[in-house]
Task: structure prediction
Amino acid sequence: MNSNTDAGRKPPPSTPSPSPSMVLQAPALPPSVHHAPSTMATPAANTSTPSFNSTESICDTKKGKYITAESDETGIAVNDSRNAHLSRPLLLCAMVAALSSINYGWVIGSVNIPALVIEECSSGPETWKNGFPSCIPMSSTLWGLVVGLTALGAWAGSMYSGKIADWIGRKRTLMYNNVFFVAGALLCGTATSIAQLAVGRFVSGIGCGFAANIVSTYNSEAATTKSRGFLGGFQQLMILVGLFLSQVVSIGLSDAPLWRVLFSLSAALAIIQSGLLFMIPESPKFLATKQRYDESRSALQKLRGNLDITLEFEELVALLDAGSGNASVPKPSLWQILSGKTEVDLRHLVFCVLFLMLSQQWSGAKGVMFYSTEILSATFHLSDSEIKHIPSIAQLLTLGIGAIGAVAVVIGMSVLDKVGRRTVLIVSSLATAICAALIVVGSKLDLGPMVATFMYLFNLVFQCGVGFIPYLSASELLPYHVLGSISGLATSVNCLTLFVISFIFPILDKALGSYLFVPFVVTNFITFLFGVFMMPEAKGKLITEIIEQYQGPPHILYEGFGSKKSRNANN
Result:
């Protein structure tokens, strides 16, 4: 990579003072550090980035005072932020950003349990009260389209989310995005026709598209190296938390007209987040790319608590300069990136990011989340009276599917930084394919308990890896100067695939019957092959190392499982 910097760029000040006021003030965790020299390269002396003193003043977030970092015999601060894991300030800021992900989960999950009440008027014939109908009858195909419009809206939002976030910042983008969540919730909550309900789902979907891209970007840029895997999976975890919460609340709000309240609660969550966003800092990396170095350093300090950020901030600026990450350097167009006409050919890494986002949706997991109540009702041959009884056995089993998904993401996040992204993806995708095959077997044998068991296991093994790894892939595999364009494209691929799966899932259910999950056996096995032969490993690596190792057009890795080098890598 070319590390020359722009000579005309204003260098960051050598002794900026962070603000003594701490955002989301909470006692910092004891620093988890090593008393050994860092292996990360420091900026070269001939760059425009000056060195910082090793005894820089840092903000004590507990007392609001400045303290001086001590150094060991190597000259490295004993509380060097580069050695830190997950601190309380960082976790709190990530949680505030991830409220958008919870809202995303709420939007996609809230239609599952009350589906039959809305589309088939299962709780009673259609009646009007205070100007609102008790249900909005429609065919299952039309209902699939209405549900799928959320994904189509997410595609529309994701197409522009990266560019807007690169323009106005991650935090402001999340704040303005809540307008879509509020508007969509009000449209759905007051819907009197299929058209209004469809428009409301589409508008809410725009908010979901922005959230899917920007939350993961903010959290990855705020994360330390050692918390990158955990915060990378935080997005999917919070989506599943939102989905589970919506289904729990649905049990009490499924009957007419209470399903309108269920849809409207998304607006309340968006309003709460808008207030909390004023209390967290902007992404330090975004601020540095705009050459707002004082603000960038202050934001990084707020995220790191009592730790010394001197060397981490130096390296942040140096890596951005090396990767053409500052605003003074023209960014390549999307066509240049996709055609390999950039200084370093990123096509293999771009292909991997796009494939991962595609594979997450073609797995069939979202179909299970959207239609599990209807699938299980048919599997257990529930009568009309049993379906009308709330909660039915199908609805209770649906709650369990949502809960086990959240637990699975926590399991995956806990092992990701130990065994690596590639290994987790390979095991997860193969296990998902096996579970899909066993669901087919259970359906053919008409064994309801077997189908329900392997639907649980399907969601468990999917969420352990394939479900959340795609969300951290772009920020781990791509340099900053292409991140906005490619992450937006990747999210749009993800959302378009989700739209297709959401729309055709009920059609496939009727057409294939017991063989519904056969296509997903195939798609998940393809993901397994991708993991073995093409997936890069980002565990513990700098972005410059990943680019050097995996640059070039899409290609098969030099070795199969456990490969550390690629055929096109520069040695």
